[in-house]
Amino acid sequence: MPIRGPVQVLIAMILVLLGAFLGGRAGHPVAGAALSLIAGMALVYTALNTLLFAIAFFGRSPVPPDRRLGFGGAIALYLREWWALVTLYTYYHIPALTRRPAGKWRGGSSGTAVVFVHGFCCNSGFWLPLQREVAIHVPHALYAITLDPLWASIDTSTRQLEALLDSVAEEGNERIILVGHSMGGLVSRSCYQHYAHRDRIVQIITIGSPHHGTRHAHVSPWRNAKQMRPGNAWLAGLNASTWQHPRLTSIYSLHDTVIAPQLSSRLDGAENMELTGIGHMEMSRHTEIQAALLQALKG
Q1: Cα distances (angstroms) measured from residue 203 to each of 31, 36, 150, 280
Q2: pTM, 2 dp
């Protein structure tokens, strides 16, 4: 994946900081303050990205020598993930705020609906790049839900998803495919276990989901984060359930920057599609993730 965009933004950050300094020195405090605010936000993203990388590195799964990134590859991944954070929480998330709690992105003619379920601290805007790609190749209706509030338990999110699935079915979609990123994969699996009409769900596809927990979840005190901590009772119950899943695919990266250990995304009984060199936040726009999802949808 190209890193030209992130490099340009980093250069812009330096120019903004320089502009803030010169604006203040030249007697333009408002302009200096505005530029300082922009630069400060960029530095916050840098700090967050660095924290995520550190946890992912120290909690990483073993990677075969021929699949390691090397120093240059790791730097490129860091820059792409930083760029994904910046664009995700500005450009993609803001339009989605007007579509709460859910939105129909496109109708379909196949009688099947694909419902996209976002992850922790996100909203339906995460899916916009991937939805555009799926719309080109798949005739299904496309929906995306925004789960509220951000700190709600996965059980609460499950009930919200169940309500959406009822609405999706009422619009003439006899079959439903759930696509969940990160925590959204757990919400999707939980929904299948508890949904009264689970026979409507014909497939679940998870992308970078912590099926066995992630160390990053220890950073947050929220209920849903606690349910994603390795070894917790809720997650153990989900994995020990006697319910049979429909066709289940887990797409994940050995270099996921928010799932640690990364092999936590592997799931017994699922079709596990292992990729490399892809970070967590860039998954909705990465061409290999898009290709893997289309393969799973058409398979």
Answers
A1: 52, 48, 26, 22
A2: 0.88
HEC readout, the chain:
CCCHHHHHHHHHHHHHHHHHHHHHHCCCHHHHHHHHHHHHHHHHHHHHHHHHHHHHHHCCCCCCHHHCCHHHHHHHHHHHHHHHHHHHHHHHHHHHHHHCCEEEEECCCCCEEEEEECCCCCCHHHHHHHHHHHHHHCCCEEEEECCCCCCCCHHHHHHHHHHHHHHHHHCCCCEEEEEEECHHHHHHHHHHHHCCCHHHEEEEEEECCCCCCCHHHHHCCCHHHHCCCCCCHHHHHHHHCCCCCCEEEEEEECCCCCCCCHHHHCCCCCEEEEECCCCCCCCCCCHHHHHHHHHHHHC
179 residue type, one letter: V
Q: Of the candidates 152, 96, 151, which has an alpha carbon nearest to the alpha carbon of residue 126?
A: 96
CA atoms of 51 and 255, how far apart (whole Å)? 15
Domains, the chain, in order of start with CATH, read: 4-96 (no CATH), 99-298 (3.40.50.1820)
Q: Can you tell me which residue has the tokens 């080109």? A: 136
pLDDT digits (tens, 9 = 90+) for 64-92: 999 999 999 999 999 999 999 988 887 77
Do 115 and 143 touch, CB atoms closer than 8 A? Answer: yes
Query: What are the residue ranges in the chain where pLDDT is below 70?
Result: 1-39, 95-102, 242-244
Residues 210 and 225: their CA atoms lie apart, in Å, by: 11
Residue 146 tokens read as 């925004």
The separation between the first and the last C-alpha atoms of the chain, rounded to the nearest angstrom, is: 26
- Token output for 80: 């792409």
For the record, the structure tokens of 187 come out as 């919400």
